[in-house]
Design goal:
Layout: E1 5-11, E2 17-23, E3 28-33, E4 44-53, E5 69-74, E6 84-85, E7 89-95, E8 104-105, E9 108-109, H1 115-118, E10 120-125, E11 132-134, E12 139-142, E13 153-162, E14 172-179, E15 185-187, E16 192-195, E17 201-203, E18 209-211, E19 217-227, H2 242-248, E20 256-257, E21 273-275, E22 280-284, E23 289-291, E24 303-311, E25 322-330, E26 337-344, E27 347-352, E28 363-370, E29 379-387, E30 390-395, E31 398-400, E32 404-408, E33 418-422, E34 425-427, E35 435-437, E36 441-451, H3 457-463, E37 468-472, E38 483-486, E39 492-497, H4 500-508, E40 510-514, E41 522-534, E42 543-552, E43 559-563, H5 572-576, E44 581-582, E45 588-596, E46 613-617, E47 621-630, E48 639-642, E49 654-658, E50 661-669, H6 670-677, E51 681-684, E52 694-701, E53 706-707, E54 711-713
Parallel strand pairs: 7-14, 16-42
Antiparallel strand pairs: 1-4, 2-3, 4-5, 6-9, 8-12, 10-13, 11-12, 13-14, 15-18, 17-40, 19-39, 19-41, 20-36, 21-22, 22-36, 23-33, 24-29, 24-36, 25-26, 25-33, 26-27, 27-28, 28-32, 29-30, 30-31, 34-35, 37-40, 38-39, 41-42, 43-45, 44-51, 45-46, 47-50, 47-52, 48-51, 49-50, 52-53, 52-54
Family: Belongs to the calsyntenin family.
Keywords: Calcium, Cell adhesion, Cell membrane, Cell projection, Glycoprotein, Membrane, Postsynaptic cell membrane, Repeat, Signal, Synapse, Transmembrane, Transmembrane helix
Pfam families: Cadherin (PF00028), CLSTN_C (PF19699)
């Protein structure tokens, strides 16, 4: 009886197992789990078990125990978990043009407990057609060189598999950003800058900054160049006639225009090549013009001024030839040059042979200047100021002394008349048939001579001033250590300094300004070139040039309207009175521009024809008003137009009178023109011979670029 087994006992802390006796006699029992076992909570269990017999007594106090046996249980795994990634997204940055061994590593985990089901055996890129591959350890690499211009960023989805081939429940996003190779240079600037007339000064590069790619930069030198040499005479200037401009700049009166617009009174320029827009005369080595006698006085005195715009390049194959700008030589018999201005071998030469007077002495006669600008094919403004025996040249407002002065004997007096010419020199003697010689190749404009006076530096600066240029907004807020300087015409600006931040700020303030009310529309090119120095002996970075342009828009065209009383009758006695009759007592000059109104509701205005049009009055200057006689010219024996000269005082105006009418000219306001025109009187002291007179009045701005209606008066 004592050999039967009645129970098994498990020793250990709350083991989830129980042992049940199946056969008391044989001692067979079964070990089982009390509830489901989770491998992920515990992979294995070790405990001690003992068998008990069915010993005496119900209390079981006398039971006999077997020896202790150790039980070791391993829990077998089931692949119940899918892999999951450690991060929700992965991000990496690569530089373009490189192949990487590993761009980044992704990592997934699996909560199964066995190596077979908890290890990640494989990763896969789900997104198709991407230049990336992934290995078994989750390392992603690029399979080709990436280009920033082709694609800035790649987004790829990646999945993982455990060794039981169970796939991750959710794929993970990998973002790869492609960084451009750092290229030193200016960043954030626009190639095209738009300029509307009247905008004042506008910044060219408001957000510009320099990328140095961590180069050890110690000093920066930047040149900004506004290229306007193909606009007018080298830049946008007022296109008034030379006479009007000289009046405007306060030049002393009496300048004689040697290259005027061809007209009945000034016909000597009629045969020359002319670019009418800017009053530019082109000489191709075949033309010259003879200036009629009486236009320029014979005696220029010891003080006189010659001014001109000139554009001239080196003449191929004509190295030894003199090229005449202005020449006063013998008309016949002899070939003596009394005074001349010419170009020879890219030097400017002024010749002045004094007439023989009391003393027959050697005198300064030839003055030579050697300047690169004489042959650079660009427009420059030249003023020759003669205060004999001193001759000074101003070019673009800067003074130059001659590098060479040669002396000569005076010219002996003779009865021979002189011929003044432009563009070539008249050879009157020493050849069988007098002809032009020493032709000029290039362009000239505004060629004037003023006898008896020389011009001041201030007036010279005004006459050649550009109306457009570079500017710096708020100079006072330029950073410390910034040096800058402009060239005289403000088309070139140099900025330098040692602090990149300050240089950036300074460049952000550089602006373009055009102070003309009606600027020449079109493109102005901009070039920014920079040099940098670096600390130490490092090879320094080079910064590419910026090529940009300013687009200047066309100004709105003004409409100039003249109005007033257009016919009247007066008793003959009033015309015969010494004050005559006021012609235009109530004349009005008004200028308007057309503006489109933009109504609030555009649907109603789909019909273009019904768009309301607004006329806006604008104020600008005029540069001439002509009162012209319609019909037969005035007969000076019985009629005339008159104006008191005191009416012109304090204004930039002048007037000329002829049998064809009265011309008032000069750059001045419409109001001042009105005031003067209202004072013009018509007198006729022989009224019985004429029944009526008709006049027409016409005004202009910018040398005829904008003209008014023709106002008729009867």
């Amino acid at each position: 009886m004592g050999s039967e087994i009645c129970a098994f006992k498990i020793h250990g802390q709350e083991m989830p197992f129980e042992a049940v006796v199946l056969n008391k006699t044989s001692g067979e029992g079964r070990l089982g789990a009390r509830h489901p076992i989770d491998c992920e909570l515990q992979k294995e269990y070790t405990f001690i078990i003992q068998a008990y017999d069915c010993g005496a007594g119900p209390s079981g106090t006398n039971w006999k125990k077997s020896h202790k046996a150790v039980v070791h249980i391993q829990v077998k795994d089931v692949n119940e978990f899918s892999p999951t990634f450690k991060e929700t997204t992965y991000k990496a940055t690569v530089t373009e043009g490189k192949i990487y061994d590993s761009v980044l590593q992704v990592e997934a985990m699996d909560e199964d407990c066995s190596p077979q089901y908890s290890q990640i055996c494989n990763y896969e890129i789900v997104t198709t057609d991407v230049p990336f591959a992934i290995d078994r350890n989750g390392n992603i690499r690029n399979t080709e060189k990436l280009g920033y211009d082709k694609q800035h960023q790649y987004e790829i989805m990646v999945t993982a598999f455990d060794c039981g081939q169970k796939r991750a429940t959710e794929d993970v996003l990998v973002q790869v950003e492609v960084k451009p190779v750092c290229k030193p240079g200016w960043q954030e600037w626009n190639k095209r800058i738009e300029y509307k007339p009247g905008s004042g000064s506008i910044p060219l590069f408001p957000s510009i900054h320099l990328e140095t790619c961590d180069g050890p930069v110690s000093y920066i030198h930047t040149t900004i160049q506004l290229q306007t040499n193909y606009i007018g005479k080298g830049c946008d200037r007022e296109t008034y006639s030379e006479k009007s401009l000289q009046k405007l700049c306060g030049a002393s009166s009496g300048a004689i225009d040697l290259l005027p617009t061809p007209s009945a009174a000034t016909n000597w320029t009629a045969g020359l090549l002319i670019d009418s827009n800017d009053m530019i005369f082109k000489f191709d080595g075949k033309q010259g013009a003879k200036i009629p006698d009486g236009i320029v006085p014979k005696n220029l005195t010891d003080q006189f001024t010659i001014t001109m715009w000139m554009k001239h390049g080196p003449s191929p194959g004509l190295r030894a030839e003199k090229e005449t700008i202005l020449c006063n030589s013998d008309k016949t018999e002899m070939n003596r040059h009394h005074y001349a201005l010419y170009v020879h071998n890219c030097r400017l030469v002024f010749l002045l042979r004094k007439d023989f007077d009391q003393a027959d002495t050697f005198r300064p006669a030839e003055f030579h200047w050697k300047l690169d600008q004489i042959c650079d094919k660009e427009w420059h403004y030249y003023v020759v100021n003669v205060e004999f025996p001193v001759v000074t040249l101003y070019m673009d407002g800067t003074t130059y002394e001659p590098y060479l002065v040669t002396n000569d004997w005076p010219i002996h007096p003779s009865h021979i008349a002189m011929q003044l010419t432009v563009g070539a020199c008249w050879q009157g003697g020493e050849i069988s048939k007098p002809r032009f010689d020493q032709y000029f190749h290039g362009s000239l404009a505004s060629l004037t001579i003023r006898p008896g006076k020389i011009e001041s530096q201030k007036v010279i600066s005004c006459l050649q001033a550009c109306k457009e240029g570079l500017d710096i907004n708020s100079l006072e807020s330029l950073g410390q250590g910034i040096k800058y300087h402009f060239n005289p015409s403000q088309s070139v600006l140099v900025i330098e300094g040692d602090d990149i931040g300050n240089i950036n700020q300074a460049l952000q303030k550089v602006s373009y300004i055009n102070s003309r009310q009606f600027p020449t529309s079109g493109i102005r090119r901009l070039k920014v070139s920079s040099r940098v120095q670096c600390f130490g002996e490092d090879i320094c970075i080079s910064i590419p040039d910026i090529d940009a342009y300013v687009m200047v828009f066309q100004a709105k065209e003004p409409t100039i309207t003249i109005s007033g009383m257009d016919h009247f009758a007066r008793p003959a006695a009033q015309f015969e009175h010494e004050r005559g009759v006021t012609l235009l007592p109530d004349i009005r000059i008004v200028s308007t521009i057309t503006k489109m109104e933009h109504p609030p509701d555009l649907k109603e205005t789909m019909d273009r024809a019904h768009k309301p049009v607004m006329l806006e009055e604008m104020h600008h200057n005029l540069d001439f008003c002509d009162i012209l006689v319609t019909g037969p010219e005035l007969d000076p024996l019985q009629e005339c137009l008159e104006l008191d000269w005191k009416e012109l005082q304090g204004k930039h105006l002048d007037a000329t009178n002829s049998t064809r009418g009265y011309s008032i000219y000069g750059v001045d306001s419409m109001k001042n023109y009105e005031e003067v025109l209202r004072q013009v009187r018509y007198r006729n002291w022989h009224t019985s011979s004429i029944f009526d007179r008709k006049f027409r009045i016409k005004c202009s701005e910018l040398n005829g670029r904008y003209t008014s209606n023709e106002f008729n008066l009867e």
